[in-house]
Amino acid sequence: MLSLDAFSQNMGSAKKSSIHKEQIGQVQGEDVFRYSLQSKTGMQVELINYGAAITNIITPDKYGKMNSVVLGFDSLSQYAGNDNSLMGSTVGRVAIVFQTKNSLLTIKITRFLLIFTEV
Predict the structure, then answer these.
(1) SS3 helix, strand, coil % of the chain, rounded to 5?
(2) 70 contact partners, CB below 8 Å, separation of at least 6
(3) Does residue 65 sit in helix, strand or coil?
(4) What are the alphabetically sorted keywords of the record (predicted)?
């Protein structure tokens, strides 16, 4: 079950770098994890494995005050909902191409034929 504070901000400063992994819920029977990365200076990035979405970046402003600089949702259900237009997702057009059968991908002047295979 997803707690309401799964995407809450942790404004505390860090003494050392850290990476934490936490299960925050499920979408269509698949576990979803939140990864929190924090630097020695306290900058923090949070992302989830659902859509490779960045859910939060906390960094100092020009006065040194830690603030979130990411526009996002408050809960996993919002990221998984129908109203989400891929908010925070880092997945680009290459992932979308794989959803179609036998697609052509052009990078600069080189074309690549992507063959669909069922898994």
Answers:
(1) 10, 40, 55
(2) 54, 55, 56, 57, 88
(3) coil
(4) Calcium
Identify the residue with better confidence: 20 or 117: 20
Query: Looking up tokens 């600089």, which residue turns up?
Result: 69
d(CA 107, CA 37) in angstroms, rounded, equals 32
Tens-digit pLDDT profile for residues 13-66: 447 899 999 999 999 999 999 999 999 988 999 999 998 899 999 999 889 899
Query: CB atoms < 10 A from the CB of 24, how many?
Result: 19
Query: pTM above the 0.90 mark?
Result: no
Contact 26, 80 (CB under 8 A): no
| Three-state DSSP class for residue 98 | coil
